[in-house]
Amino acid sequence: MNGIRDEDSRTGAGNTSRVGHATRNRSKNGGNRGEVSPLYEVRQSLMADLPHYVVACLHTGKLAALAILVSGGIVLQILACALYNNWWPMLTVIMYVLLPMPLLFFAGSDGSALFSESDNSWVNATKFLTGASAVGSIAIPAILKHAGVIGWGALAMELSSFFVFVLAIMCFIGMTDEDNYYSVI
């Protein structure tokens, strides 16, 4: 391993190829040409010194944190129903199932179009349907509380379940974002 590292440092193929790759990605996305984030450089220098199995373990830890977040959201969802012996709050599961459908059907593999302005009507329809599903995830428990079907405790657990799911989604987006070299976790 030291022979490979010494050879890379003599030829200059170590970190400069990674920085060049980052420069290419940033420049095609509208970033400043030739500039790389200092945070990215520090992260690359720290990660370059770690063995491959340690880096793989760190990524596994991020996945485990996502799994814990999603599991916590599911547990809160079920507890909101089971503790108060009222299963009406499970209606929000319909919205959780419908939420990713527009993204899967209309956005395709280009998820970057969802975070920018677009003239594409399919992308606009995707944004609208996803937003409507997200609002429905909050509105269903609020309507059930207003109608007197569920209590304040079930409403609090439902909304906290929603926010735990949103946090998991944001962490996933930050973890899989390859153009910006940062991670939420």
Automatic annotation (TrEMBL):
<feature type="compositionally biased region" description="Basic and acidic residues">
    <location>
        <begin position="1"/>
        <end position="10"/>
    </location>
</feature>
<comment type="similarity">
    <text>Belongs to the OB-RGRP/VPS55 family.</text>
</comment>
<feature type="transmembrane region" description="Helical">
    <location>
        <begin position="93"/>
        <end position="116"/>
    </location>
</feature>
<feature type="transmembrane region" description="Helical">
    <location>
        <begin position="63"/>
        <end position="87"/>
    </location>
</feature>
<keyword id="KW-1133">Transmembrane helix</keyword>
<dbReference type="GO" id="GO:0016020">
    <property type="term" value="C:membrane"/>
</dbReference>
<dbReference type="Pfam" id="PF04133">
    <property type="entry name" value="Vps55"/>
</dbReference>
<feature type="transmembrane region" description="Helical">
    <location>
        <begin position="150"/>
        <end position="173"/>
    </location>
</feature>
<dbReference type="GO" id="GO:0005768">
    <property type="term" value="C:endosome"/>
</dbReference>
<feature type="region of interest" description="Disordered">
    <location>
        <begin position="1"/>
        <end position="36"/>
    </location>
</feature>
<keyword id="KW-0472">Membrane</keyword>
<dbReference type="InterPro" id="IPR007262">
    <property type="entry name" value="Vps55/LEPROT"/>
</dbReference>
<keyword id="KW-0812">Transmembrane</keyword>
<protein>
    <recommendedName>
        <fullName>Vacuolar protein sorting-associated protein 55-like protein</fullName>
    </recommendedName>
</protein>
<feature type="transmembrane region" description="Helical">
    <location>
        <begin position="128"/>
        <end position="144"/>
    </location>
</feature>
<dbReference type="GO" id="GO:0032511">
    <property type="term" value="P:late endosome to vacuole transport via multivesicular body sorting pathway"/>
</dbReference>
